[in-house]
Design a protein that fits this description.
single chain; mainly alpha; elongated
Length: about 110
C-alpha cells in the first residue's frame, strides 16, 4: 500500500508546476519567524523538520529539481548528451545485429 501512495505522490509532483512541486515537498518546513514567547514549541518543531537536515526530504527536493531540469531540457529540444547517447546505443545495436547476421550465415 505504501508503494501505491509513493507512486501517487510522484505522479502528483510530475504533473504540477515546478513551484507547486517544491511547495509540496517542503510543506513540512515550518518558518519559525514569530517573535511571540509562546511559539517556542513551533520553533523547535520547525528546527527538527528542516529540509536540509532530513535526508528523505532532501532526496525529494533533489528529485523535483532533477525532474524540472529534465522537463525543461526536453521542452527546449533534445539535450546534446542525450542525442549522443542515442547514437552510441544505435551504433552498439548495429554492431550486435551485424555479428548476429554473420553468425547465422556461418551456421546456415
Amino acid at each position: 500500500m505504501q508503494i501505491a501512495s509513493i507512486l501517487s505522490d510522484l505522479t502528483s509532483l510530475r504533473v504540477c508546476e515546478h513551484a507547486a512541486a517544491l511547495a509540496l515537498v517542503s510543506v513540512h518546513k515550518i518558518e519559525a519567524t514569530s517573535s511571540a514567547a509562546g511559539d517556542e514549541s513551533v520553533k523547535s518543531l520547525g528546527a527538527s523538520r528542516n529540509v536540509d537536515d532530513d535526508p528523505d526530504m532532501q532526496r525529494a527536493t533533489d528529485l523535483v529539481e532533477l525532474h524540472y531540469g529534465v522537463k525543461m531540457n526536453h521542452m527546449e529540444g533534445e539535450d546534446a548528451g542525450l542525442r549522443q547517447a542515442r547514437r552510441d546505443v544505435d551504433r552498439v545495436l548495429e554492431k550486435l545485429e551485424s555479428k548476429q547476421d554473420k553468425g547465422s550465415r556461418i551456421r546456415g
